[in-house]
Design a protein that fits this description.
Belongs to the complex I subunit 4 family. It holds the Pfam family Proton_antipo_M. The protein is mainly α. A two-stranded antiparallel sheet has the order 1-2. Helix 19 runs antiparallel to helix 20. It has a domain of 231 residues.
Length: 521
């Protein structure tokens, strides 16, 4: 559905204007207002998203709406083409929700160097524009440009604003892994165009899908192209064994950067698998599915086991995400409507849950006299900082998918959908739920129970600003845990469209849970 108002373009442009405004506050008298300016633009983006959602027809969430297509580089077949289905809209909402919370969380950072804080907040808003754009891009080359452009602000946010002597190493490692995947993807993008319909709109995703449906690729060509895209997305996701950049980046990046990196940016990997790999290369996707499912199950168990053994809280949260991304990939490549819908909803829920964990961990570390991230340096804080302890527990319970929280809904959908396709994969993946209970409860025990060390006695609890940061995330986990129908309405039809594009039917044993949830809405 097209619209006279270019909602998606406005959602991309507004953060760019905000970044320019923040960077433009150079005078000493004006720089004190930069936090307020950044927050105002972040909240304005949230309001603008609400207006865009009001123009979106949720009863037809499987088709792309709010679309715009303009020639960009017609000689190369490149267009500025944007549009959103239900899944894209959900992930745009995730990005737009987290950015103002990250800005609020960084309110007191770099108090001694406002110029440095100005650059950080400008990068956050610049990154928001890229995040929104990449989820609504409907031209493969445009998508690739955004896929690579996101690396620039994240690199500086880790290397320039992180902590520890190894922050530059972590930033370079992140950049090298991402560039390696991006270069392979670029080769695949070029080959895709050469095998596609060509013309001034030769990179439009739908044009490519329609062309390959009428003119199937050679088996070897399709598989090679699939592998080129999949490798880049697996690195971004991150999927075992190309995940090793993530723990280092999370350990040394600011908490807000980790929130956006793991909560939103890494979803570009699984989103790309869902919206590019599957519809463009349906036969190759089915061919690779058994191996991908094995890698996903390994990621689930490996990430959980590594999380249990961590002594650094930021690395621990990063490894939990490796495990959770395994569930998402498992749901996508199990090829059932229920598992694909669950994986789509899981992407949103993971961003909320992990974003809360990273932000709360950042508040915790900021309260330690030495800014320590080591679990052994804490203890007994549930009596000293009860609000911090309580909200951390809720976020932790969401990471283990406790019933009543939204993560439970998406995880059970993935597991039940996978079980109907592959009993062994689902049964082994369930072990990840047990391991999640271990790493969450052991972490809470080490940090918040027992007797508080002397240097933590009198530690202040969450202030009003910090409560405003955490409250929306906790509310989202609770509300969507008890009433997930609005989100499920957005992912149900895109999942059916994906199944049709891949040419796979649901197993006869797949329960029709989605129609039950949809009727509640």
């Amino acid at each position: 559905m097209t619209t006279e108002i270019p909602w998606l373009t406005l959602l991309i442009v507004l953060p760019l204007v905000g970044a320019a405004a923040v960077w433009g506050l150079g005078a000493t008298s004006a720089r004190k207002h930069l936090r307020t300016v950044a927050v105002v633009f972040g909240l304005a983006e949230l309001v603008l998203l609400g207006l865009a959602i009001s123009a979106f027809d949720t009863s037809d969430a499987g088709t792309y709406q709010l679309t715009e297509t303009h020639a960009w580089i017609p000689q190369l077949g490149v267009s500025y083409a944007v549009g959103a289905d239900g899944v894209a809209l959900l992930l745009v909402g995730l990005a737009v929700l987290l950015v103002p919370l990250v800005i609020l969380a960084a309110w007191r950072e770099q108090d001694g160097d406002l110029a440095k804080l100005r650059h950080y907040l400008g990068l956050v808003l610049l990154l928001e524009a890229f995040m929104v754009a990449v989820f609504v891009a409907r031209d493969v080359f445009f998508f690739y440009v955004l896929f690579e452009a996101m690396l620039i602000p994240v690199y500086f946010m880790i290397g320039g604003f992180g902590g520890g002597a190894q922050r530059r190493y972590a930033a370079v490692k992140f950049l090298l892994f991402s560039l390696a995947g991006g270069l392979v993807m670029l080769v695949a993008v070029i080959a895709l165009y050469l095998n596609g319909p060509g013309g001034e709109q030769g990179f439009l995703t739908q044009n490519l899908v329609d062309h390959f449906a009428a003119n199937p690729l050679a088996v070897s060509t399709e598989r090679l192209l699939f592998l080129g895209f999949f490798l880049a997305f697996a690195i971004k996701a991150p999927l075992f064994p190309v995940h090793t950049w993530l723990p280092d980046a999370a350990e040394h990046a600011p908490a807000g950067t980790s929130t956006l990196l793991v909560g939103v940016l890494d979803k570009v990997g699984t989103f790309g698998m869902l919206t590019l790999c599957l519809p463009l290369f349906p036969n190759a996707s089915q061919w690779a599915a058994p191996v991908v499912v094995v890698l996903a199950v390994v990621s689930i168990l490996y990430g959980a086991l590594m999380a249990i053994g961590q002594s650094d809280i930021m690395r621990l949260i990063a490894y939990t995400s490796v495990s959770h991304f395994g569930f998402i990939v498992l749901g996508i490549f199990s090829f059932t409507s229920l598992s694909v819908s669950g994986a789509s909803f899981y992407m949103f829920n993971h961003g909320i849950s992990t974003g809360a964990l990273f932000l709360l961990a950042g508040f915790l570390v900021a309260r330690h006299p030495s800014r320590s991230q080591r679990l052994a340096d804490y203890g007994g804080l549930q009596r000293v900082t009860p609000v911090l302890a309580g909200t951390f527990l809720v976020a932790g319970l969401s990471a283990l998918s406790l019933p009543g929280l939204s993560t439970f809904v998406s995880e059970i959908m993935v597991l039940v959908g996978t079980f109907s396709r592959s009993h062994p994969a689902a049964l082994v993946a369930v072990l990840g739920v047990v391991l999640a209970a271990l790493y969450v409860l052991l972490t809470y025990q080490k940090v918040f129970t027992g007797k508080a060390p002397q240097n933590l006695v009198g530690t202040p609890d969450l202030g009003a600003r910090e409560k405003w940061v955490v409250a929306p995330l906790v509310v989202a986990l609770l509300v969507l845990g008890f009433y997930p129908a609005p989100a499920l309405d957005l992912v149900r039809e895109p999942a059916d469209a994906t199944m049709t594009a891949v040419g796979v039917e649901n197993p006869p044993t797949t329960p029709d849970l989605l129609s039950v949830e949809g009727s509640d809405s």
